[in-house]
Amino acid sequence: MTFQSKNLQLVQLLRGIASLLVVLLHITRGSSEILDKIFLLNFFSFGGAGVDIFFVLSGFIITYTSQKNIGYADKLPSFVKRRFVRIFPTYWIIISLFLLLQIMLPSFYKTHFSLDIKNILSTYLLFPGHIMVNGVSWTLSYELFFYLLFCVAFLIPNKKLSFGLAAISTVIIIMLPVFGYDYKNENYWVNLITFPMNIEFFMGILAVVIIPHISVKTSLAFISVGCITFLMSIGLYNLNYYFTADNFNRVIFFGIPSFFIITGIVKYELSNKIKVAKVFMLLGEASYSLYLLHLPLVIAAIRILSKFNIKNNILIHVLLILVVGIICYTSIAFYKFVEKPIIMKLNSLRRIKVANEI
Fold it and tell me: Which candidate, 299, 284, 263, places its Cα nearest to that of 332?
């Protein structure tokens, strides 16, 4: 399963695209609900697919970057610390800012969040079913659950056994509805385990496993199949066509095509020199900040626009696209001046501590 690690620019590009899709989804919804205007013919109603891309990417990235350490229990503490630093400090800063915004300017951004200790702990620790301050943090609960499952791989010396357990977990999730199980009727903690979109994390793991065994020519076929099926899925999803229950439907429509695209582009880039424009690399690097920051900013911006009662449809579109650009720029700035320095500082402190212990 192990192959040479490399900084993958196309993966960063795809992260940027995924986060931008989610932004465009919320611009589309906000325009309809607040301005009573249709944004770009509601084409980006499928934008939630960005989350499906993120889940497959997460499974791939975690496995790809940790593949040499899998099976070594002494590497587990370092993995846990890196994941903690990557997720929580940025998340805590952003939700604290938005809680402050909700208190100070409730007319622009108001959630159902109440300031009791149980609610605060649940939200700050990303427990499943927590009250969301920014409307997107539910995905981080599943991300953390995947990290928890992945920790097991460090404790099992046999990598094939670890992959086998991941495959069995996938099969169980798929088979549960066949036996009449409805994950929507269970409590939040049970739902965390049985959630259909967990399959997408395992798809990312599978991508790492098969990439060394496919040719560059095959990678181009993977990219073609992934892009074609993704585009077909956009049409079906926007027409409200469903093969099966909603979240299983997302796995079929967007998870599977994402698996083919990611597998294909990674294999291709590992075999070829790729150069992605700096602005797109920056957007990919800032994708976590963009994902966490955008929704309250979108709502606030659209509510400000609604105050002007603009009737011209073209002008509304221009202003909404400008809002997207401003939010992307703000997120990149936040990444460069807040998120990245904090991560680097915390990681350097961790390295200093390890060095002192040695």
Answer: 284
- How far is residue 181 from each of residues 58, 194, 211, 272, 294, measured CA to CA in Å? 27, 10, 34, 46, 35
Q: Smallest Cα–Cα separation from 143: which of 163, 155, 165, 126?
A: 126
- Specify the pLDDT at position 227: 98
pLDDT of residue 350: 55
Per-residue pLDDT tens for 146-184?
999 999 999 998 888 989 999 999 999 988 877 777 777
313: how many CB neighbours lie within 10 A of its CB? 11
Cα(216)–Cα(223) distance, integer angstroms:
11
Say how far apart CA 137 and CA 144 lie, in whole Å. 11
Token digits of residue 215: 């040719």
Q: What is the C-alpha to C-alpha distance for residues 97 and 182, in angstroms, rounded to an integer?
A: 37
How far apart CA 99 and CA 94 sit, in angstroms, is 9
Distance CA 281, CA 335 (A): 12
Q: Is the pTM of this model over 0.90?
A: yes
Secondary structure element (H or E) that encloses residue 248, with its range = helix 246-250
pLDDT tens digits, one per residue of 220-259:
999 999 999 999 999 999 999 988 867 899 999 999 999 9
Cβ partners under 8 Å of residue 255, min gap 6: 52, 55, 56, 197, 199, 200, 203
pLDDT tens profile 82-112: 999 999 999 999 999 988 887 887 766 667 7
Instruction: Round to whole Å and give the CA distance between 256 and 34.
Output: 34
What is the C-alpha separation between 327 and 320, in angstroms, rounded?
A: 11
